[in-house]
Amino acid sequence: xxxxxxxxxxxxxxxxxxxxxxxxxxxxxxxxxxxxxxxxxxxxxxxxxxxxxxxxxxxxxxxxxxxxxxxxxxxxxxxxxxxxxxxxxxxxxxxxxxxxxxxxxxxxxxxxx
Length: 113
Prior knowledge:
Elements: H1 3-15, H2 22-48, H3 52-59, H4 63-70, H5 78-87, E1 90-97, E2 100-107
Antiparallel strand pairs: 1-2
Helix pairs in contact: 3-4, 3-5
Domain HTH cro/C1-type: 41-95
InterPro entries: Cro/C1-type_HTH, Lambda_DNA-bd_dom_sf
Organism: Kribbella aluminosa
């Protein structure tokens, strides 16, 4: 069953009044957070014009680890997120509000002389 098919089935069950199990709700939140982080890392890396290997070198990680982060296959620890933000020359913001998840990297301001 494809992701879109599962989502349709899930939505039909919820509309019909079925209650989604707590572990499924928690898993969905984790997936949304992982996906939002992956997108934010990719977009900032693309904005800088660097490769996964270059980002990995800056952050002291492997290219495979960057690939797993950008592929939503892993959720990094807080210390690793800090290293990523430094390597991306940006501040990391994560907003969690119920079902809403927002992850963004804001570039550090540099003095234009």
